Amino acid sequence: MKLQIRGALAAVVIVGAAVLAAACGGSDSGSTKAAKSAAALDFVPKDALGYVTFDTDFGGDNWTKASELATAIKPDLKSVEDQIVESATSDDSDVDWKKDVEPWLGENAGAALLDMKADGGADAFIWVEVKDRSALESFAKDQGGKKGDKVGDFTVWTNKDDSSVVGVSDDLAILTDDTATLKKVVEYDGDSIKDVDGVSDAIDGVDGDALATFVVSGDGVRAAAKDNEQLKGVAEADQLKDFDALAASVSAQDDGFRIEGMEVSASEGTAENVDHPIFNDLPASTVLAVGGYNLGGVVDSALESFGKDNAQVQQGVGAISAVLGVDTKDLAKALDGEFALALSADDQGLGAVVGSAAGAAMGGGGLSGVDPAGVLKAGTLLLAFEETGTTGETLGKIGGSAGALTGTPAAPKTGTAGDFKTSTMNVQGLPVTMAMSDDVAAVSLGLDVFSTWGDDTLADYAPFKDAWSAADAPDKSVSTMWLDTGRIAKLAGLTGSDKAQLGGMVGWSKDDGKKYEFGAFLHITDGSKS
User: Fold this and answer.
1) What's the predicted TM-score (pTM) here?
2) Is 326 within 8 Å of 398 (Cβ atoms)?
3) Burial degree of 364 (CB within 10 A; 0-12, 13-18, 19+)
4) In this structure, is the dihedral angle defined by the CA atoms of residues 341, 347, 349 and 355, taken in order, positive or negative?
5) Where are the domains of the chain?
6) pLDDT, tens digit (0-9, with 9 covering 90-100), for 454-512
7) What is the spatial distance between Cα 123 and Cα 2, in angstroms, rounded to a whole number?
8) Which residue among 117, 130, 149, 286 sits deepest, i.e. has the most Cβ atoms within 10 Å of its Cβ?
9) Helix (H, G, I), strand (E, B) or coil at 112
10) Are 376 and 337 in contact (CB under 8 A)?
């Protein structure tokens, strides 16, 4: 789907730009209410992949707060109204928000993805609720739009070169690629996606006053997978069979942007909500980290589900097991405790990568000249597991097999680092260390982090603590995440504004039976106190 938007018909542009600008960037209703009751949902079939709704009160408290927070990243950010008007204005049209748009713009806008085609294409449409049809059509006419035939209750409007099509009814404007797609959309008279099992429950689990709300239907995902030759095996996976719906919302709060999500399933979840001591003990210099539980069980379950009827997957797993010298069942048993994957670096190492990436992007050369591995010359990539009895032994086997494959000498350098026994070998100029303590088994690539393990930790790092507290994240969770966006921003020269400074970003997921919660929070601090 192309949905070409051109300036000749500003009404067409407004419909698309209102959605697109909202995506980049309230009323009492917010987007979550619209996610359950928007009039356009009657035209979204139950087997559609999903949809997104937006609060269109761009001058209200929600969007005003969002714009203020966003100055932490872009101090000269324009208001959403100004962005939309700028997008809609061209050489032959001039748009005034108060006079041309506000009179007809309704409470919400959105977009629906009806299906995904094997060739990568898709059927989709964008909608905006209309509170004054005559005002919209008068505006469209003033901007050079061409009024065409009726399709059901909708009058077709196109721009000068017929590259964009809008259907206008008493309460909706629907934007599609062509008249045929518009006809398909507005003539639909079957079951709606809003009536799919779990959709309403999923929406109820997210912020009720959000800027944007995203919804994915299990029926739609299964239908898309079955229609795609490469994804047919996925469609039969147990996890997907029980998946009902997923909803996620984005909202602006006093101290940051929040994402809340809810997945609803027909079956009970088996994940545990636990503490994450290994994650908390990561170095304070950690830039990016994810923590979780029972990685081995997750991998084993996925392989069993996706590969049970797929000989190619089974052969691949068998080959990998043979190379590593570890059976997948033994691996699952060894890795059934807590784990954390982390990248840490001092400002010099991180700054070199951030600086080269920013320079390459500004120079128009993309990121082709950036060497992410360069951060390991002054940092560490770490994968750490809870020692559950066979964890260290299993990692040792994998390390030995990997050493043989890379031609590394069979006798690595052994020693101690803090509470850890270590075994280090050099791979292409970087030290690879296997480290074992009574509680933790880990492998690292880069500088030593084990000598000071437990000192100056992530849990003690002020930006992490502040973000976690502001997020009101759960004490126990299935998984957790950290991204030091504040440090990255400073090294990239993003100084924020006198209203807002970028802090850290945290994330988590939590199992609640048939409902699986997930969330993320981008902490933004008061710029006047920096």
Assistant:
1) 0.83
2) yes
3) exposed
4) positive
5) 10-29+48-191, 268-294+337-529
6) 999 999 999 999 999 999 999 899 999 999 999 998 888 877 777 788 999 999 999 98
7) 10
8) 286
9) strand
10) no
